[in-house]
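Reader question, answered in our methods column.
A reader sent in the components of a multi-part assembly and asked whether the whole thing could be modeled at once rather than chain by chain. We filled in our standard form and ran it. Here is what they sent:
COMPLEX SIZE: two components
ENTRIES:
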Amino acid sequence: MVLREQKADLWIGAGLLLFCGFVSWRTTYIKQGIGSSAAGPSFLPWLVIGLIALLSVLLIVRALRAERTPETDIMMPGKRVLVAMAGFTLLMICYAAAFMPIGYLPSTLVAFIVGLLLLGERNWLLVVLFPVGMTLAIYFGFTELLSVWLP
Amino acid sequence: MDTIAFLAPLFEPQVLLAIALGTLGGLVIGALPGLTATMGVALLIPLTFGMTPVMGLNMLIGIYIGGIYGGCVSSILLRTPGTPASAATVLDGYPMAQKGAAGRALGMATIASTIGGLIAAVVLATLAPQLAGIALKFGAAEYFALALFGLTIIASLSGDLLKGAISGLLGILISTVGADPISGVMRYTFGIHGFASGFSFTPALIGLFALSELFTQMERIAANEEPIRGASGRWPTRAEMSESKGALIRGSLIGTLIGIIPGTGSGTASWIAYNETRRASKTPEKFGTGYAPGIAATESANNAVCAAALIPLLALGIPGDVVTAVLMGGLLIQGLAPGPMLFQTNPDVVVGMFGGTFIATIFMFIFGMALIPVFSRILMIPRRLLAMSIVVFCFIGAFSINLNPVDLYTMVGFGVLGWGMQKFGFSQAALCIALILGPLLESNLRRGLLQNDDNVLSFISTPITLLFLGLTVFSAAWPFLSRVITRNRAAQHQ
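And here is the structure of the entire assembly that came back:
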């Protein structure tokens, strides 16, 4: 799937402006310090938000004025790959959520196997044996040799 | 005569063994994503309790030097910076490995780290007390000017200046999350306690470079692109060495100078060295494509910082960075108070540490070169298995820094952000630089304004700030200037 860079920049610029709006709203919640200086806790955030908003407008204007050149087109992954990538992201979020409550060994083993399947590995021997060996080797190396605590 | 007598204990077998083991241990720790030299030194300090000061402290210096060097291994092979100090090495190291020259990239990194380390060690041994005086002249205005100068790297690193600037500003905004450095007021934490100290830098960096690369790998696997598995020899070619001469010297000197300024660190030094080397190069377009001088600049700079950061520690009692702060703990445990008096009261320890820095750097070279074939074999592991192994290492690395599960979400979030930035032409490097320099810039800008009743002119009142601000203007204008120069030269040739 090919995406025009100008079109992408237009959407990104608009998204950044929305983001600036949201962050500006949150910045109003920052309490001001007790000092007399004009440069309080929200001084730099306001400065940066203003600059990002300005540059986002420039990005939009540039996208509107630019002519299409094929070499700047962006190759997007196909639907199947995008679904796999979303699945992989979800897997990592679940792994992060399970890491502390379930513990390193079971969470890593499950994440490893599911991850290999999502990456397209279909050799069952590798899908089962490699995660078991690797998970145990990493656990031993970190906890015993490097004294790093793992849940 | 005294100096020779003070150096003699360094050559006792058990001292040499301690330095060698420290360096090797540091190398392994540094090579593992997320495990930093700081963590290595902190973990192994208890081992040095029963050792003599020279033996114990030099073992810690070995871990420090090995740890900073080790970071380049995963940067080059896996696009996963082992330590924040080696984040800039990703830019040319990984593309070089992708071209099938992983061995030569690691070889260049080892040689550069050794040269940087040795040059800074010579400076440490000869000019420590004199140079430490410069560090004392740095106040809020000077640190602000330095941070501002560092941020101008973004201008020359970004192919698209507009997107580079947006990336950098986003990095600065992200760095403001958490407690305000001056007043302690919470900013953008949404009531989540885990964000009180802001986004942890190392998990963010691992996500930005390593996890985003995994998404790219998924695209490549789907497209059935064959990975390049060749590792090449371990020695850089004669042409690569010749091209890198200037980068090695420039990186070493920049690393030494940055290293003596407390609170800056090897991450800042390697980015500045990369930028200056690129700007001085006749072929700047080759940087970022797997060009050996890019590795030479960053690796010589970050290892030069190791010895240079010992200068303010030993001469003034001020730690130059986080690792030397932990090292200071090692000195105190041995009953030694760092500072000017240390040179008078314990010259044997000071000279022993100077000598130990040289020996640890030489051990780093020996182990580094010997292990290149072993490291390069990582690339032989089938891509899917390697990808999932990296995910697990990234999770453990991100978690083990603060034992904080929030860091895992930070890493995943930055991974997705990094992939999107890469895909749409935004600069991950610019975001990374801004994350490093943002807190330094903000705290010193505001401190300077507070100290001088909001008088902006106080920032241009000393020669050091004027120098850095002048360099900032020059550095920011350089991409435009170089374009004009190139155009004029082309017109003259026609």
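What stands out: Chain A touches chain B through 69 residues (CB under 8 Å). Chain A has a mean pLDDT of 88.
Send us your own complexes using the same form.
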